User: What shape does this take?
Amino acid sequence: MTTAFDPIDLSGLKLANRLVMAPMTRNRAFGPGNSPTGSTVRYYTQRSTAGLIVTEGTQPSVVGQGYMNTPGLHSEQQVAAWRKVTDSVHAAGGTIFAQLMHSGRIGHPDLLPDGLVPVGPSAIAAEGQAFTPEGLKDFVTPRPLTSGEIRQTIADFAAAARNAIEAGFDGIELHGANGYLIHQFLAPGTNHRTDEWGGGVENRIRFAVETVRAVAAEIGASRTAIRLSPEVPFNGMAAAHPDPEPTYRALLAELEPAGLAYLHLIEHDRAFTATVRELFSGPLVLNVKSTGHTPPEEIKVVEEGVADLVSFGGLFIANPDLPARLKAGGPFTTPDPAVYYGGDDTGYIDYPTLQA
Assistant: This one.
């Protein structure tokens, strides 16, 4: 029987176990030009016993930033700073992917330089607020991308992927989930376009498919992954996409032959997880829907063949040595929101580690 503690060959990468540190926005890119600092090095190195680390969402371009103090991978300065992170994680025996995230309509002009405003498939504002240097402000109506700008955005993703490999990452994960730009193109409620990038399912999946292909052409499909959340309502996506299954069936049909490193699914419904498993034969990383299960119960999705790997978010913040704790059956430190969303370096503390 395969367990979450068994090694796995992930498209040529030898992972020590099947436990994945999920990407989590930390808002702590305090270095010059939104670059990581020494605290970021420490944070990821502390968690290098994960089979795979996926970094916080990292913008592929200046206009892709939707939150304060989030890092990028679009400048030489950022590449050099991330290299210190990857070198340290690798020295500790870890494997690390960068998550590339363009926030699209989720953001605010106060977070962007030079008069830029958030962009999206269509001029449809999200409900909710962005945290800005002046406090919470309503999301604005995004400026619709032109067809040429869409092509440039795809190129930006490919360039950022190339920068990630230059920075020493083992691969990249495209953030196609949680209501950010790729997800916005997929959903009919956020994509009202009538050109080749919108309308029917075939056109709405085009941006995701072409971004995957462009990145895979740049760094190789075996170093390219994508995260999806077909039924998760975050950032207003429940109303924007009330019947997502036909769209995602079409998307998975295009992704299936690509030979991707993995698909990272944020679970909402186990039945749909089974559908994804049926349609995508590559490695599946599952972020298990929270139903009150304890962590040792959640890792059983690997034993049961529901997924090949399982990812954890907040538990990895509170428990840097989470694989050892899972293997021992606990104890687990409860995630502290004050640390999770602290907004400064106070979260990078030496957490107690499980003694052998």
Remarks:
- Residues 340-356 have pLDDT under 50 and may be disordered.
- DSSP finds 14 helices and 14 strands in the chain.
- The first strand starts at residue 8 and ends at 10.
- The CA atoms of residues 201 and 250 lie 7 Å apart.
